[in-house]
Amino acid sequence: MSIRPNPPERSLTELSRQGLRDLLLSWGEPRYRADQLYRWLFQRGVRDVEQMTDLSKSLRRHLRENEYTIGRVTLEKVRESIDGTRKLQFRLADGAAIESVLIPMPGGLFTQCLSSQVGCAMDCQFCYTGTLGLSRHLTSGEMIDQVVRAADGLPPGSRIDHIVYMGMGEPLHNFDAVVASLGVICDPDGCGYSHKRVTISTSGLVPQIDKLGRVAPVNLAISLNASNDEVRNQIMPVNKRWNIDALIEAVRRYPLPPRRKLTFEYVLLGGVNDTDDDARRLVKLLVGLPARINIIPWNPFEGTRFLRPADERVRSFQRILLDRGLTATVRVTKGLDIDAACGQLGERPSA
Ligand code: SF4
């Protein structure tokens, strides 16, 4: 499959803070003007230059005349689940569709699950997004725009507390744009999330895990989903390139900031990876790591061969991990009725 290139467009939200400074300096504007513009774009989420009241009239006119747009992501639809989960459906400037999910937490807080690609190339067998293949990478601005525009889909009095790159796509496959997006999302003058409130989830791209550790002190989540290579090869083709041993070694090298834990996601597939022996092997793999295991009973979608495990099987699997001293939680399924649960994102043909 050929990957479509990102559409060319002059959007201000594609520029880093330095990029905005360079642009405005080239127009003869002082550096503080770029910082004002930056805060309007990312801290306040303003989309209309006319509302940027501390910018000079001539600068506002210049921005309009040079046809700079603000963002290339339009919030098209918000679907709300009976459990309070909100699925945000975005339309991109080239017509592609992506989704982002707001997961409710106690105290009026939400975790936002971001997409990093249109579709995904990783082909994990249990994931609906994987069946779509990869159309294209998202730009950094398209990722940031999901965060900025999510405020439009929030109930009054609530706020987003945590960002997870766990929506459509493999974020480390789109490494440079993801790192560029972190530069704005984690900037106090940008979206203002500290690195400890941001998590990148990966299916296991080993060289990029090493690279990420060198450039951004964010939390790391590993989508593990098997306790041996035989099963992981079958359900996650990436394992044929970097097997479990290589992945665990990379995770051990990851420079985790003090007092933080690595997250291991384990999608439990009935009859595939959910036996007590799997749980015991998982204990052996993760022993000595500051690990939190997130057990995710598989969420069904049409046309797959997998089964959701019985509740008793899920409890037995978890009990073995807990008895060996590991931190293991079972993720409460949220957003199932609106196809917003883990592994279900992506436009349906009939949507
Ligand atoms: S689980 Fe993640 S990496 Fe795997 S196919 Fe789905 S979106 Fe891609």
How would you characterize this protein structure?
The protein contains 11 helices and 12 strands. By secondary structure, it is an alpha/beta fold. It has a 10-stranded mixed β-sheet with strand order 1-2-3-4-7-8-9-10-11-12, with helices on one face. Strands 5-6 form a two-stranded antiparallel ribbon. Strand 10 (262-268), helix 10 and strand 11 form a beta-alpha-beta unit. The two termini are 23 Å apart. The mean pLDDT is 91. Bound molecules: iron/sulfur cluster (SF4). The site of iron/sulfur cluster has 13 residues, from helix 4.
Helix percentage range: 25-40%
CATH homologous superfamily identity of the largest domain: Aldolase class I
Overall average pLDDT: 91
Query: Which word captures the global form?
Result: elongated
Strand content: 15-25%
- Heteromolecules bound: iron/sulfur cluster
CATH structural architecture of the largest domain: Alpha-Beta Barrel
Radius of gyration: 21 Å
Reading side by side through the largest sheet, how are the strands ordered?
1-2-3-4-7-8-9-10-11-12
